[in-house]
Every structure is written in C-alpha cells, then in structure tokens.
Amino acid sequence: MDIRIQSLKFDADQKLLKFIEKKLAKLPRYYDQIQSIEVVLSILPDHANKNVKLRLDIPGNDLVVERHSKTFENAIVDCIDVLKDILKKYKEKKKEI
C-alpha cells in the first residue's frame, strides 16, 4: 500500500506525518486490496480551518472523503472513521457478488 501525503501552502511536521501513517496503516484490516492512499492537507480561511482530503485507490473504484476540523489530527480521525464504514460496506457487497 502506497501512502502519499501532500501539504498545501505549509510544511507538515514529522509528528503529524507519523500520526497520519500510523492511522492509515490500520485501514487494510477493513479491506485488504487498497492499492494507494493520497492525503492532501490544507488550511482554510474559516474557523475550523484544517482540511484533510483522503483518496483511496481500490480495484474498480476510488473512495474520496474530505473533512475539516480545528486540528489535522481530528480531521484525519474523522476521515478514517468514515472510510472504515465505507470499506466494511464495500467488502460486504463484494462478498455478495
């Protein structure tokens, strides 16, 4: 599984990058055919100004989840929670076919 992390208009520190990689490493538990994950971090001008966009490349599909929060860590956790649910449903559909 290939993980690419982009930070737009700022430099992400190593602590944040390690946190993201640690959280993303758990996703294959829910669906083992994830080919790559692209993470885009950006800062928005509003109150909850940390934006995270996750794009999962799986065979036959791309899953995209975008969340914003006061911290990148909270936005990452929110995205991963949503992806866990999506991957569980996707895996169940694949079993039915």
**Sheet with most strands: strand arrangement:** 1-2-3-4
The tally of beta strands, per DSSP, is 4
Residue share in helix? 25-40%
Question: Number of helical segments?
Answer: 2
Mean pLDDT: 91
Would you identify the CATH architecture?
2-Layer Sandwich
Q: Which fold does the CATH topology refer to? A: Double Stranded RNA Binding Domain
Class based on secondary structure composition and strand pairing = alpha+beta
* General shape: elongated
Intertermini distance: 25 Å
Top CATH class: Alpha Beta
Write down the Rg: 14 Å
Instruction: Identify the CATH homologous superfamily.
Output: Ribosome hibernation promotion factor-like
Please report which band the strand proportion falls in: under 5%, 5-15%, 15-25%, 25-35%, 35-45% or over 45%.
Answer: 25-35%
Major sheet description: 4 strands, mixed
Domain count: the total is 1
Query: Could you list the spans in which at least 5 consecutive residues all have pLDDT below 50?
Result: none
* Order of H and E elements: EHEEEH
